[in-house]
Amino acid sequence: MTKTPDPERPSFIASATDWLRLATHPATVRRALMTALIVGTLLIAINHGHAILTGTLTRVRWLQMSLTVLVPYVVSTTSSVSTRRELANAARAT
Question: Does 72 fall in a domain?
Fold first, then answer.
């Protein structure tokens, strides 16, 4: 039994392309960078401050600090894309 495609629902490719378009929108990128900078810096200070102050940074710590900045960037981007989609759907519904 084959499933009939829902004409109201975009394909996976169309949905992923739309997500990437919204994720790379200048306002989304700007917001995510600011969030990553602020939250990432705070988390790095909390989690790696002692190693920074004592000069005992290792390659592993550098990788961890990079991920510490990357995570808030991804969270902010995902949140912004979801909000933009919700606003677009609400505007279409009215």
Answer: yes
User: What pLDDT, in 10s, does the model give residues 2-40?
Assistant: 666 666 777 889 899 999 999 999 999 999 999 999 999
Instruction: Give DSSP secondary structure letters for 29-59.
Output: HHHHHHHHHHHHHHHHHHHHHHHHHHT---H
CA nearest neighbour of 80 among 15, 23, 16, 21: 23
Q: Is residue 40 part of a domain?
A: yes
Domain count, the chain: 1
pTM of the model: 0.82
- Does a structural domain hold residue 10? no
Under 8 Å between Cβ of 23 and 77: yes
